[in-house]
Known about the structure:
This protein is α+β, with helices and mostly antiparallel strands. It has helices at about 45-60, 60-80, 125-135, and strands at about 85-90, 90-100, 100-105, 110-115, 120-125. The protein is about 30% helix and about 20% strand.
Amino acid sequence: MATKATKKAAPAKKAAPAKKAAPAKEAAPAKKAAPAKKAKAATPTTKSAILADLATTGGITKTQITAIFDRLVAIAYAGAKDAKGIVIPGIGKFSKQKKPARKGRNPATGETMKIPAKTVVKFKVAKAFTDAIQAK
């Protein structure tokens, strides 16, 4: 029978000398708290938060407002497919735009390639919306 070779145990390392403790620093005087700003109502940023806000403001259930919101989205999709587009007052206009085929370049290889024609959604912001954003 063959016997296994045994490894020698590595010699134990010497412990590093203990460092001296740094002198304790005095506590800095407490800063005055900043004056409290008036709390603004948080603007809902997710679909569920928007729907909850609309439901409470309108006095209807979340199920009803969800159905209304989904119908508005469906109308916007159908209107954007139309040649004239659709205007949502105070927000903007959705329309479709045809982009012609063009030549492009693959950035990895530098090879010239053909990019096919496609139809994209175009959005133009309403003047009222722009004015509301720029107002202080």
